[in-house]
Amino acid sequence: MAQKNQWWLVIIALACTYFIWGSTYLAIKYAIESFPPFIMVGVRFTVAGSLLYVILRSMGHAAPTFKQWRGAALVGLLLPVLGNGTVSNVQLHVSSSVAALAIATAPIWMAVFSSMWGHKISRREWLGIAIGLVGIVLLNTRGSLQGDWLSAGLLMFAAASWSLGSVWGKHLAMPSGLMGAACQMLCGGLISLLFAAAFSQHFPSQVSAHSWTAIGFLIVPGSMITFSAYYWLLHHVRPLVASSNTFVNPVVAFAVGGWFADERIHVMEYLALAVILVGVFLVLTATTEAVPDEQIV
Predict the structure, then answer these.
(1) Domain map of the chain by residue range?
(2) What Rg, from alpha-carbon coordinates, does the chain have?
(3) Taking all residues of the chain, what is their mean pLDDT, rounded to a whole number?
(4) What angle do CA 214, 251, 103 make, to 5 degrees?
């Protein structure tokens, strides 16, 4: 019965990362109409992390140790700041659909970084990686990113940062349960506010109703619920399966962007999406070899 219940939890958690996170790309677009990107990320994750931290502490969860805070800060830097923060900055220039499409390469980066901790990349995975890169080339040479190599490079950097943090986080000292997610979000939000200060981004004097609504969506379902679901998945299933949300997120982002924001999708972007998803599918369905347990550091 416990095993069956776990599978239901996996399905629910994956559904959250598939559909809620697929919608957050458009929410980010609306949020950055008023908020500078790193301010938006800072507010989003600081509030979400603080609320979840207070809730968990009131339920009796132990306070994290210094070592656990250090691990949470490292992952917070890689996921919310360098991952989500970079995507948010790029979305000042590209559509939410294209941003989601480029981030679809995350499972490919997962396979590469997992090899640093003992995972042997199979031939099927290498084939998937190669096909996924072909899709990115198509996107960068014929789609909306044509000629915009800076945005393309930043989106690849964001996907790589998110993937590295997702894999590395399993081998760092981290608070148990959802406290780990709370601390990662809280640390990431505070670090993002430091980035905002470094890039001279300031809190806006006026915020539109669209932006406030988007921020609320990003804080509660987009972070408190879905980031926690993603954190839980990382500790109960393979990293490549946990990141399979990127298989569905572009499709959801395409639909949501088209329906609510009239975003136009080029034919070449549909082709790039199909090619990337073939690569991701090969990576996710590859036969995995046992990975030795790593000592928490």
Answers:
(1) 2-284
(2) 18
(3) 85
(4) 75
Say which residue the tokens 């490292």 belong to: 74
| Residue 4 pLDDT exceeds 70 | no
8 Å CB contact between 41 and 203: no
In Å, how far are 122, 181, 251 from 11, measured between CA atoms?
26, 19, 18
- CA–CA distance, 22 with 248 (Å, rounded to integer): 7
User: How far is 224 from 38, CA to CA, in rounded Å?
Assistant: 18
Instruction: Read off the pLDDT of residues 16-58 as tens digits, 9 standing for 90 and up.
Output: 998 999 999 999 999 999 999 999 999 999 999 999 999 999 9
CB-based contacts of 284, cutoff 8 Å, min separation 6: 107, 240, 241, 244, 247
Model confidence at 68, in pLDDT bands (50, 70, 90)?
very high
138: three-class secondary structure by DSSP? helix
d(CA 269, CA 138): 8
List Cα–Cα distances, 220 to 20, 21, 50, in angstroms: 11, 12, 12
Nearest to 89 by CA among 150, 12, 4, 20: 150
| Alpha helices in the chain, H assignment, sequence order | 2-15, 21-31, 37-58, 66-76, 86-90, 96-103, 106-114, 123-142, 149-168, 179-198, 209-219, 226-234, 239-242, 245-261, 267-284
Instruction: State both tokens at 120.
Output: 């042997």
CA–CA dist 80, 130 (Å, integer): 27
What does the alpha-carbon distance between residue 167 and residue 49 come to, in Å, rounded to a whole number? 21
What is the crossing angle of helices 21-31 and 245-261, to 10°? 50
